[in-house]
């Protein structure tokens, strides 16, 4: 590394580490790479996204960090999962073997070529012109070897094409696996794992925020009466309403089954409760068609529990409080927000 490059790297690292500490970013290799690139300002899109998130959160939640790293630093070709790693190793071994065979064939051809020229040189040095009968075997040998090389080249070309197709398939597979690690496949919302990571970070950072839990009322009844596909349609419909509410740093998650959660940064219990009530009304107005007969099914409602982060809260205490409020809403008759 050149001296200037080393000095630049050291300067970037000195800038990156304090920022990571300030925004409560865990010291992992991926996070170092992300923040080093941020202070280096070589990817404007990355800086813009980080700045927008920090404006809303003042911290960088793990779910966002993982997406930023994947989209801007690692790229979809970075294979860090064991099954894909094995596939890539097998692919490299196969191509390497083909290349080795091709190189061996080329070396053999060079050897034959050298021997043929040596034979011609010997005949010329004997001060007599070689006859056609003497030259033809040498030419035929060269032609045969050239054909072998051509076949070998065709083979390696096909192998490389197959390898290229396989790499494209693996990249697509990796993108799906990485997406599944953060998102719920049915609703496309962030999943429980992403929720756990994000809420833990907010609590560790003692960041002002509120938490909303919501649960679809009588969901089992809809499943039993209309079938699980209809139930899936309800889940998707409510997820769309939640996505529409995700502005100003708000993030929605499928917590599990028919239960959802929203993390609302820098908002009080009063504001979060107002938002929950607006969502409750939006869900109440939903109508979904029964695929069997096309009739519209209404009366879909949800109950909400809201809690605000307070000094001394942990992940568990905050979740327990929001969950208790949700239980109170169910017990009070459903289709309502608690605390009232």
In words, what does this structure look like?
66% of the residues lie in helices and 10% in strands. The chain is α+β, with helices and mostly antiparallel strands and 340 residues long. The chain folds into three domains: 3-74, no CATH class; 82-182; 192-338, 2-Layer Sandwich (Alpha-Beta Plaits), CATH 3.30.70. It is flat and about 105 Å long. The two termini are 63 Å apart.
Structural topology:
Elements: H1 3-22, H2 29-40, H3 44-57, H4 62-74, H5 82-125, H6 132-182, H7 192-204, E1 209-216, H8 219-226, H9 228-244, E2 251-256, E3 259-265, H10 269-284, E4 288-289, E5 296-297, E6 302-308, H11 315-331, E7 337-338
Parallel strand pairs: 6-7
Antiparallel strand pairs: 1-3, 1-6, 2-3, 4-5
Name the features.
single chain; alpha+beta; Alpha-Beta Plaits; 3 domains; 5-stranded mixed β-sheet; two-stranded antiparallel sheet; 11 helices
Q: What's the number of domains?
A: 3
The largest pleated sheet is described as: 5 strands, mixed
General shape:
flat
Instruction: Flag low-confidence runs.
Output: 76-82
User: Taking Cα atoms only, what radius of gyration do you get, to the nearest Å?
Assistant: 32 Å
Mean pLDDT: 78
* Count of helical regions: 11
**Strand order across the largest sheet:** 2-3-1-6-7
The CATH topology label of the largest domain is Alpha-Beta Plaits
